[in-house]
Amino acid sequence: MSEQAGADQDQPVLRLEDVRKTYPGGNKVLRGISMTIMPHETVALLGPSGSGKSTLMKCINLLETVNDGRIWLGGTDITDPRINQDACRARIGVVFQQFNLFPHMNVLKNVTLGAIKVHGMPKDQARERALELLDRIGMRKKAGAYPDQLSGGQQQRVAIVRALMTDPELLLLDEITSALDPMLVGEVLAMVSELTAGGTTILMATHEMSFAHHAANRVVLLLDGVIAENGTPEEVMDESENPRTREFFSHFR
Ligand code: ADP
Ligand code: MG
Questions:
Q1: Which domain holds residue 92?
Q2: ∠ Cα 108 149 205 (to 5°)
Q3: For the segment 118-149, what is each residue's pLDDT rounded down to a tens digit?
Q4: How many domains does the chain divide into?
């Protein structure tokens, strides 16, 4: 479903260099995170609750500032305070666990608002792109519906469409199925799989271990603020000899 073109295939989409984040009060959440995401990779970010997955994503999306280290989005050092933050955010699509859509706006308005108001996309173009993206997930006929007329799964799929409006270089998905009725998880994960197949570059925090195993190209495990594992799903989830890694995955068997 992606139309990413012209990206340099040898250059990482995202590069983190020794990223550190301590919240006011002294909680050292990220203690030196270094990792790279290459074009078209889907990377699953795993770790216990409180291990810093959301914090890491917020630092990448500039919702939190890092205390130390650098984050590169393509060739841009986004930790440089002089950068244009809105321009950087337009290059990253984000979907959170919940509260993604504005309840008083219909689907089309929800999907187009940010692209028009924040990123300066012309209205007609935004409308056309939104309808095309909704069409691809079979939801064009819901363009006039309000969020409370949609299932949770449909709402999250609309939220993903909204995140794709600016054709971002990177899609951040933060536990997007955690608040869903189990029956609705599958349709959202199926959409993620389609994006992966279409070449979208994705970093997703998730507790859906079987999905991570079969759909991710790479798995990163965060434990106590550092990357404990970074490898293929098989290497990390099946073959790691690290007792803490095995302990973590044992909870999901
Ligand atoms: P995860 O997404 O892996 O569950 P988080 O990044 O949400 O982890 O949280 C990591 C740690 O940082 C937790 O101990 C959490 O309580 C703490 N934390 C998260 N957000 C804040 C904040 N805004 N201020 C202070 N502490 C925070
Ligand atoms: Mg989280």
A1: 14-69+85-100+168-251
A2: 75
A3: 889 999 999 999 999 999 999 999 999 999 99
A4: 1
